[in-house]
Predict the structure.
Amino acid sequence: MLHIVNKSATDRGSLESCLAMATKGSAVLLIEDAVYAATTGGAAAAKIQAAAADLKIYALGPDLAARGMAARVLDGVNVVDYAGFVDLVAEHKSCQSWL
Amino acid sequence: MLHIVNKSATDRGSLESCLAMATKGSAVLLIEDAVYAATTGGAAAAKIQAAAADLKIYALGPDLAARGMAARVLDGVNVVDYAGFVDLVAEHKSCQSWL
Amino acid sequence: MSDMDEMEDGSGIVKKFMFLNRKAPHGTVYALEGLEVVLITAAFDQDVSMVFTDDGVYQLLKGIDTKGIEVKDFSKTYRALDGYDIEKLYVDQSSIDARGLTEDDLIVDVTVLSVSEMANLMAEQDVVISF
Amino acid sequence: MSDMDEMEDGSGIVKKFMFLNRKAPHGTVYALEGLEVVLITAAFDQDVSMVFTDDGVYQLLKGIDTKGIEVKDFSKTYRALDGYDIEKLYVDQSSIDARGLTEDDLIVDVTVLSVSEMANLMAEQDVVISF
Amino acid sequence: MQFGILVNEGPYSHQASDSAYLFARTALEKGYKVPRIFFYHDGVYNASRLATPPQDDRNVGARWSKLAADYGVDLVVCVAAAQRRGITDGVLGDNFRISGLGQLVEMGIQYDRLVTFGD
Amino acid sequence: MQFGILVNEGPYSHQASDSAYLFARTALEKGYKVPRIFFYHDGVYNASRLATPPQDDRNVGARWSKLAADYGVDLVVCVAAAQRRGITDGVLGDNFRISGLGQLVEMGIQYDRLVTFGD
């Protein structure tokens, strides 16, 4: 299953709720303001790195770039472009957007 | 100064940011989804009660009632109606909505 | 344009639809407009589950009175779900615990699940829509 | 309908306006449309302070490139504020610390304040508008 | 005492619009002055006269128009925000008008209080 | 493989509308099918043809209309959400149509994937 999160983890609880409910082996894609969580130095970095042991963590490159964060991506996070986003949706049987 | 918070403290960071920046003696009014923080049993209850030592904490009655929370208001929180909301704005030199 | 016409197009496919409610009522319209989708999905004879987690559990509280904010009280709709054959209502244990609530505070009968049970339920769905 | 006409109505009153930016750029339009209000307020010769706290500090990051999401890059506007006599830019220390950022990461020169300094600044304003 | 009100969200989707209305109406009923209400961001959607909500629900646009008629409130919609979102003179409800952001700044300068309702 | 897309927020105010567009266009460019895109909640505002954003900015409504023309996508606006918000047949952009929520449910039933973009 593919989980999509689009809100900043320093403002909303959706990333935390997602990580609590994502089962082992599932994928989490961070888009829009959620990409900050995939970067070094932030409060969510430790959570993301811990989660990366059991989950595949992706972040949308165009959203990272639009936020000046392209060069700060955490190790263990896979950066994808929109084509990669489309492929992730295609590869997983279902997806859930954590609105 | 009157601080107005309208978002649930279990979903957003605005109440916490407000409480950190409200100076001693100022007033905090909880409206809309923020009123849950003024009720017993919730995660924000301890924060609100601690804050009530230095701040005047208000909650909008119609919003409490609309959420089934009218009978669960924390001690130390003053419930006001819309007329009371208007008076609070009039009584304070300025107000800040924590959007 | 009528939903009734569309329902006649029914292909006989039954999918598992989960509606995930994470937001408090009234502050935003998602809870209300979300209910409208749930009702239509049930009318298409799909396998519908409604899940309430995070602030979404607040939607089910007893004693809601919206007169003072002059909006519709749609909380009665949750009690009517039964009549639409929507019987799978799930509430996240940790979400009600964190808000100091118990099943007795809720307007309808629900099944309370742990996070891991909820996770398994979500993983077996065909379609998940979040409001 | 032109703002220029209105400015001629200027009564000579100068008030302290604070614009509090708490939201990240691009995810929502508040940062961009907020800037428009700030520029007009300065054109009315008011005493303008811009404050960046919580996710609002992300608005000021260097190296923003919006081509991939096909929206305008308005981050250059922060560098032009000087030309509109908007020189009071304040950033909350704890907000940049919590995000692993330093002043060097920001596109403009700012004054970094502690929460209590920020609180005092806010308390002395006539008008506070939050975006 | 004069209150200015800033409404940043559209009708129905966010309670901000309802809260702003109830605040404004109550202030006027109590005898305070609310000379102008300014609609910005998605708040500009409050001004559409094309909305036809269900019979058993409130009509947000019509309610603003009536408040303006009853108390002489100036309902101003930001032109830049409105152009982005398709709110034109042709769809404006009664007593709304489109103007510039300067009208918002004026509220801050001339009135005693400015109260913001948003998301 | 067929993708359905659900757009829950209006243009400009939330990136959700931009993200949905870029996802849909990319999927179509890659050869996937996107037979229908459904606009719900404030998403119905995407359909207005009255929007006139600044010259240097994207025109969200026109962009959707062109995508539909280029690839034959069915752009469906929820009637109930649209009535609440003043989106009528008279203001619809090219290739948008107003219909019921059943069209959304059908996407879930008939397509292989349903992707939601919202707030």
Q: What stands out?
A: The two ends of chain E are 26 Å apart (CA to CA). Chain E has one domain: 2-117. The mean pLDDT of chain E is 98. The CA atoms of residues 79 and 99 of chain E lie 5 Å apart.
